[in-house]
Amino acid sequence: MIDVDIPGFGELHLAHLVLDYNGTLAVDGELLPGVFDRLSALSRQLGIHVVTADTFGRVRSAMSSLQATVTVLPVARQDEAKLNYVRQLGADRTVAVGNGRNDRLMLEAAALGIGVILGEGASSLTLAAADVVCTSIGDALDLLTHPLRLTATLRA
């Protein structure tokens, strides 16, 4: 669990981390450097969930030695599937990270939504739904390791 009280934003009691894969943790299906170690460290505090279309078919092998739940979604209505996943976990206890248009609803519903802009870009709708936007997945994950960074960004 990660707890942080952000003046003007509210108290966060985070138990789950839900992430998109391609464009968020990986580019062209390849996990980005430093991601595995950060997720491994965060898995001691949060349940790690990767929810993806798995465009390149590599998510299961990339995540196989990490304590994480991997869910590959069917092609249709992925935005709603990701939203429902977050709701089933408890949106009020979940941080969601993504970049694609199909990530917008889960970022909007989660207690904390983090948009990332990597090599494939990001949907402007998703960025508008995010509470915080980062230009690297490392920086996004480090917000959870160093939650006072969230306070500095989100306080009123």
Biggest pleated-sheet summary: 6 strands, parallel
Report the structural category.
alpha/beta
- Show unreliable segments: none
Quote the average pLDDT.
Answer: 93
What is the share of helical residues? 25-40%
Give the termini separation.
Answer: 24 Å
How would you spell out the order of helices and strands? Answer: EEEEEHEHEHEHEHEHH
What is the helix tally? Answer: 7
Radius of gyration: 14 Å
Number of strands: 10
Shape: globular
Proportion of residues in extended strands: 25-35%
Spatial sequence of strands, sheet with the most strands: 7-6-3-8-9-10
Characterise this structure.
With 156 residues, the protein is an alpha/beta fold. 34% of the residues lie in helices and 26% in strands. It is built from 7 helices and 10 strands. The strands form 3 sheets. A 6-stranded parallel beta sheet has the order 7-6-3-8-9-10, sandwiched between helices. Strands 1-2 form a two-stranded antiparallel ribbon. Strands 4-5 form a two-stranded antiparallel ribbon. Strand 9, helix 5 and strand 10 form a beta-alpha-beta unit. The longest helix has 12 residues. The radius of gyration is 14 Å and the shape is globular. It starts with a strand and ends with a helix. The mean pLDDT is 93.
Secondary-structure topology with pairs:
Blueprint lengths: L1 E5 L3 E5 L1 E4 L6 E2 L2 E2 L3 H8 L4 E6 L6 H5 L5 E4 L5 H12 L4 E5 L5 H6 L2 E5 L7 H6 L2 E3 L2 H9 L2 H7 L2
Parallel strand pairs: 3-6, 3-8, 6-7, 8-9, 9-10
Antiparallel strand pairs: 1-2, 4-5
Helix pairs in contact: 1-6
